[in-house]
Amino acid sequence: MIPFLIIATTLFLSSVIAADEAFPSIPTTFYVAKTLSDDLKPIRREVYGEGKIFDITHRYTQDMPVRESSEGVKPFLRLTTSMKNQSLSNTSEMKLSVHTGTHLDAPGHFHDKYYDAGFDSDSLDLQILNGPALLVDVPRDKNITGEVMKSPHIPKGVPRVLFRILNTDRRLMFEKEFDSSFARFMMDGAKWLVENTDIKLIGLDYLSFAAYEEAPETHKFILGERVSILYISLLKIIPVEALKLDDVEVGMYSLHCLPLRLPGAEGAPTRCILIK
Ligand SMILES: *[C@@H]1O[C@H](CO)[C@@H](O)[C@H](O)[C@H]1NC(C)=O
Ligand SMILES: *[C@@H]1O[C@H](CO)[C@@H](O)[C@H](O)[C@H]1NC(C)=O
Ligand SMILES: *[C@@H]1O[C@H](CO)[C@@H](O)[C@H](O)[C@H]1NC(C)=O
Question: Cα–Cα distances in Å, from 107 out to 58, 204, 215?
Answer without folding.
Answer: 23, 17, 16
